[in-house]
Amino acid sequence: MQEKKFNKLPKHIGYIIDGNGRWAKSRGLPRSMGHSAGLKTLKKIIKLSFELGIRYVSIYAFSTENWNRPDSEIQGLIDLFKKYLKGNSFVKDYPNTKLNIMGDYTKFPKELVDAANKTIEMTKFETQFVLNLGINYSGKDEIVMAVNSIIKDGLTEVTRDVIDNYLYTKGQPEPDFIIRTSGEQRLSNFMMWQAAYSELYFPDTLWPDFNKKELYKALKEFEKRNRRFGSIKEEG
Questions:
Q1: What global pTM score does this model have?
Q2: Do residues 104 and 136 touch, judged by C-beta distance below 8 A?
Q3: Phi and psi (nearest 5°) for 229?
Q4: How far is CA 164 from CA 60, 93, 138, in A?
Q5: What's the pLDDT tens digit per position in 156-209?
Q6: Which CATH class is domain 12-138+175-223?
Q7: How far apart are CA 226 and CA 125, in angstroms?
Q8: Which of 66, 163, 181, 234 has the fewest CB atoms within 10 Å, measured from its CB?
Q9: C-alpha–C-alpha distance, residues 73 and 76, integer Å
Q10: Domain coordinates of the chain in residue numbers?
Q11: Catalytic residue positions?
């Protein structure tokens, strides 16, 4: 149940969940504990977003560049993903929610791939909410994938709508609002096509500390944004 009224909410919100490692380092903890804390925050923020009535939520959890991190950190993230993507747990955490994975998750170990496939299958007919989880994801690679698929299908001319229909987010509205925590002010290859007109918000808060208060603050900022999409808003 929505606890606080907003004059407008994004239909689709994206989260670039940055700062887990710095959160851990600032506390003298291993980076793995930062990722564990970040997962707890992730579950809370996704649930809250759905409860507020935001139907589409996109998460940038693991980029193609993240493979360059230490093996121990990558393994820790894989272990977290395996637990997170277990079908029964996912359905319990996010009722009436379809899981859609953005990225080539087949590059992960078989146990993770199997868990993901099972949860995708379990939730494929859900229509109330959609969770787009970006793992082994690259916005540029997504566009390349779409173009190659278009060529394979024999199309010789494309429009924006055609490209839209070959992306991971086919049939969804583009993200209205993208939040990147930790103070970094860039998209880092997240939804490069879909984010063309997204409103961007860069709080200094590290992801594990991003809570309901911080989300409400962000959504109040979204309310102030004047989304003109290149046109001129008439004066009242």
A1: 0.94
A2: yes
A3: 50, 40
A4: 19, 29, 16
A5: 999 999 999 999 999 999 999 999 999 999 999 999 999 999 999 999 999 999
A6: alpha beta
A7: 35
A8: 234
A9: 5
A10: 12-138+175-223
A11: 18, 66
